[in-house]
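Session log. Operator J.P. requested a structure for one protein chain; no other inputs attached. Running the standard single-chain path with token output.
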Amino acid sequence: MCMNSAKMFGTETVRVRPVNCYGPGEHYTPYRGFIPKFIYHALFNKPYVVYKGHKRIIDYVEDTCRTFANIVGNFIPGEVYNVAGKPEWESAIAVYSDLVLNAVGIDDSIVTYEDAEPFTTNIKTIDCSKAVKDLKHDPKVTPEDGIRRTVEWMKSIYTSINT
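Structure written below.
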């Protein structure tokens, strides 16, 4: 629809692809990303699966929002921008699971490690260079700090619900 509007009416259009954005405000459901799922399960000592060989990059919600706020005055019409964490933050999903477990304060006894999940991309490397150049995308919140903040928020939400 956006592309048709741009073609038919000259609408200045931009497409933005946030990648694994996470953080406070994202409530758990089984259909959300892996970070809130891991945190929720860890908080309630519920088992979850980590697939070996899968790598992802995550972006804390404040960093994503800061970049989104820069879109209006900086985008190039017709461009597509990927918005994700810093390339050096790309890690195995098992590493992110360990960060969650450390932030919650439990060991990995609730985690089952399985071979790579079938029918999915094992490594999703994201190129955000256009967002860095045009939208001044500059993630600042490390996965360690972002996961810690998200765990604290989820603790405050789910502890108050279940007490």
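Operator note: The mean pLDDT is 92.
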